[in-house]
Amino acid sequence: MTSKSSPLAHAGCLSRLFLCWLSPLLQLGKKQRLEESDMYNVLEEDRSETLGKELQSFWDREVRKSKKQLSEPSLTKVLFQCYGASYAKAGLFAFSLEAIKVIQPLLLGKIILFFENYDPNDDQSLWLACTYAAAISLSTFGLTFLQHLYYYNSQRIGMKMRVAVCHMIFKKALQLSTESVGRTTTGQIVNLLSNDVNRFDEITLNLHYLWIGPLQAAVILALLWYEIGLSCLAGVTIVALMLPLQTWFGKLFGLFRSKSVIFTDNRIRIMNEVVSGIRIIKMYAWEKPFSALLTGVRKKEIHQIMKSSYLRGLNMASFFASSKIIVFFTFTVYALLGNAITASSVFVTVSLYGTIKLTVTLFFPLAVEKVSETRVSIFRIRNYLLLDEVERNDVVLALEDKEIPVELHDMSLDAPSLQSVSITVKPQQLLAVIGPVGAGKDADIYLLDDPLSAVDAEVGKFLFDQGSQIYNLMPSSVTHQLQYLKGADHIIVLNGDLGHIVAQGTYQGLTGSGFDMVSLLNSDEELWPRTVEELQTNLLQELEPQTRLEPTNTNPTAHRSCSKTAAYILQDWWLVYW
């Protein structure tokens, strides 16, 4: 993460409207290639944690409300409650943008009409023409200005929705119960995070045209009626005939999307299983059968994607062909009705039809298509969020009680076998529990179960040093990494067979009382013996403290304990050596 704060956080109204806060970054990009360190920090309001908690609160409220009303919770309703107000403001930019597109053809018609009826002595008409030209210039600037604002705000809202939903999905994955884990797959979760959430970025760009499109079409129809009269109905009829076709296309897009995601989930699930079991597959030479299985699933997925692609091609073809067909039929009817075709009427009509064509045959159908696909994604995400979670009994100590120690008295368990274990853990104290495998270290009396075993010595030392700064949480560490015992405030040594505490105290206290802790510790550079002679020497050193602590114990159980300890040491040395 960079340390550069975003200038958007302190940008004024004009800077936000004209996007001036981006100028320093653009100037830097002009001089040199941008690096990661040149990027600004994410605003606090755009962070995943902030967005996720906000949407989660709305979702939890909706779930509780639906339980009371015995109904299904609606994720769509939650999204509108959380982002509806800000998205409505972005709709004002879209409305102003389309309003300018309607006004521009009228201004163009007035200018052309001035040249058709040009009079050198008519100064008033000249000033009006200049005013219309200035208005067209300003409206063109306004189009660019409003379009950037609309796309910026819409995409930012879509980004917030996507990030917030990803936060909820990831959080849900950490809380799924055992039954819920069996009802979902890793492939489905990956598909939700990689494909389904992307629909929010797409739907926010087109959703407003579901109401802007019909409204703009009604206004343009009135203007066309005023401009060319009854002839406009010919073109409007073709546009009206295309609307149900585009709506049908949108429903088909949703249908194909719902089918393709099933094959995608199945393919990802199978691929994850293949990668996980690739050694077994290679061992038994099952490459070809599994390759054929994946190829078959992929073909089914591609078949659904190809259907969507063909349908999208027909949709785009109808868009490009519609404008020519509409103009042809309109002016054919206009000429047959005995009207004279003029430049002003042609330019105004073609411009108005061009505007309605973009809205009604492109943006409106695209909005219908994205709504259909987004509904499928929202339905899948909602079903995932409704999966059962594990019941958590979190115990949180109040800040005023942080000085109270945690005490366990005479605790006994069957498996692992702990017998009469009593410990006391004070705040800001690091407790280390050591002992052979099977001694009962993995009971629910610790917070950290050998977290250093999966990393190398250097990383482990860093984690131990940094982790020591969280003592207010009363950390306890169960570990085989004996080199860290010197840093522990209290050490507990468990016996493997008897299941009770052999010795406990500080490192200095145990070594001073005769308990040979030196033999249990190795240097950071040499954690394991490399030769049989070193192994024998260290083995005798590790067995010697038990002999000194229990000199009268000569029963067979003690010998079995020594044999087990020797076996474990040999096994660990063999695995590490190879």
Properties at a glance:
single chain; 578 residues; alpha/beta; ABC transporter transmembrane region fold; five-stranded mixed beta sheet; two-stranded antiparallel sheet; 65% helix; elongated
Give an overview of the whole structure.
This protein is α/β, with parallel strands linked by helices and 578 residues long. It has two domains: 42-385, ABC transporter type 1, transmembrane domain (ABC transporter transmembrane region fold); 410-577, 3-Layer(aba) Sandwich (Rossmann fold). The protein contains 17 helices and seven strands. Strand 4 (448-449), helix 14 (457-467) and strand 5 (476-478) form a beta-alpha-beta unit. The longest helix has 51 residues, at 123-173. The radius of gyration is 37 Å and the shape is elongated. Mean pLDDT is 77; it is low at 469-478, 520-532, 545-554 and 573-578.
